[in-house]
Amino acid sequence: MSTANIMLSSDLSSSLPLVNKGKVRDIYSVNSSTLLIVTTDRVSAYDVTLASTIPNKGAILTLLTAHWSQILKTSIPDLRTHILTLDLPSQIPPPLHKTYNHRTTQVHKLRPFKIEAIVRGYLTREAWDSYQLNGTVCGIPIPAGLKESQALPNGPIYTPSTKADVGEHDEDISETQAAVIIGSQKHADRIKHLSLMIFNVAHAYAWARGLILADTKFEFGLDEESGDVVLMDEILTPESSRFWKREEWVVGRDAEGVDKQFLRDWLAKEGVQGREGVVLTDEVVRETEGRYRECFERLVGKGLEEVLGEE
C-alpha cells in the first residue's frame, strides 16, 4: 500500500479563501456559487480528530463519492447531488495539481439542513443494543424474535439525528423533530423519501458486488435558487456507512466490515474513544487503509491505483 501522498492539512489560502476547516475536510470558496472541498487523510472518530492519518483516505472518499453520484443519478433521475466536477479550479497553480488531484471536488453551494439522514437496514451495533433493551430502534417498534445482524423484516428504516457541531455528539430525533429543524415538512418528507430510495438502490448495487450495506448516513442541502433538496457531502463511503462482506455475513453474530468500524472498535478496546490526539498503531493504520481499499475496489470494480492512473 502506497503512503506517498499523505495530507494532514491543506493550504490553498494564497489561491482561495478558506471557509471552514472540519474534522476531515477543508472547504474553500471558488466563487459566489461554488465551493472547493479538499478531503484530507485526517481521521475522526467518536466526534474528535485523531493525531494519525490514513494514507490515501482522501482519494478513496472523494473518488467513491463521485462514483456513487453517477450510479445513483442513473437509477434515480430526479436526484441531484452537489458535485460539479473533480477538476481543480483555475485559481490553483499547476505546481499544486499533483498534491490536490483526486482529493478535491468543486460543489454547488447550498444551505445545509442541520440533520443527518440515517437509514438502517440491519440490526447491528447501537440498533441491536436498543432492540435488545426495549424492542425498538430509535423509538421505532421492530418485530420480536430477530437476531443480531439480521435484516429488518419490513425493510430499511429512516432514523434521523441532529448534526452536532465539532466536539459535540449527534442525538437521535423523531421525524417530527427533524421537520422542525429542517423548517419545512415538504423538505423533510423529500429527505426521507430520497434517503430510503438511495439506500435501496445502493444496497442492491453493493449486494451484487459482494458487500452488504447495513446502514448509512446522508446529508442534504437546499438549492435556494431552485428550491431543490440536494444530496451533499460524502456518499456511501466506508466512513459514512457500514459495509459487510457478504460471504462472511452470518445472522446471529457481529459482521465483518470493510469500513471504519474496525478503527472505532480498536479505540474502544484501548479505552481512548473520544480522546483528542490519539496516535494509531502502524498495524491499525494499515488494516484500516486495507479495509477502505477493499470497499473501494469491490464497489468500483477497479483498484485505487488503476483509477488514480486514469486521466
Task: Summarize the structure in words.
The protein has 311 residues and is an alpha+beta fold. Helix content is 31%, strand content 23%. The protein has helices at 57-75, 97-100, 126-134, 175-182, 185-207, 261-270, 282-300, 304-308, and strands at residues 18-21, 25-31, 34-39, 42-45, 48-53, 83-85, 104-108, 111-112, 115-120, 136-137, 140-141, 157-158, 161-162, 211-222, 229-232, 241-245. The strands form four sheets. Strands 8, 9, 12, 13, 14, 15 and 16 form a seven-stranded antiparallel sheet that branches. Strand 4 (42-45) and strand 5 form a beta hairpin. Helix 1 runs parallel beside helix 7 (282-300). The longest helix has 23 residues, at 185-207. It is globular and about 60 Å long. The two termini are 21 Å apart. The model has no long low-confidence stretch (mean pLDDT 95).
